[in-house]
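User: Teach me something about this protein's shape.
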Amino acid sequence: MLVIDFHLHPLKYETYQPGARGYLESVIGEDIEEYVERMATPGAVVEMLEESGVDYAVVLAELSPITTGMMSDKGMAEFCQASERLIPFAAVLFHLLLPHLTIACPTRKDRTG
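Assistant: First, the predicted structure itself:
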């Protein structure tokens, strides 16, 4: 049976928000920079997939400058070029790319009367 991990982030972001950085460091138990140097390479990810019995991973870009950080579509695509087992998946966030086209969302007050 083919096993695909459909939600993988490369961790080597272009920028991190301080809160996201602190959270990741609390989860992994070490400095994020040291961890990224060791584990956030295409080779290390493919090795992790192999050890876990996963055939492919869909690698997601992250365009969340307010909450997490930035890993552009281009950066994610470059990361995935190292192995056919890494499948790139772009992020399209219209509110960042085309702010004049954002849809107004009703506030909670508007919805509850």
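Now, about its shape. The first strand starts at residue 4 and ends at 8. Residues 15 and 107 are 30 Å apart (CA to CA). If you'd like, I can walk through any region in more detail.
User: That's plenty for now, thanks!
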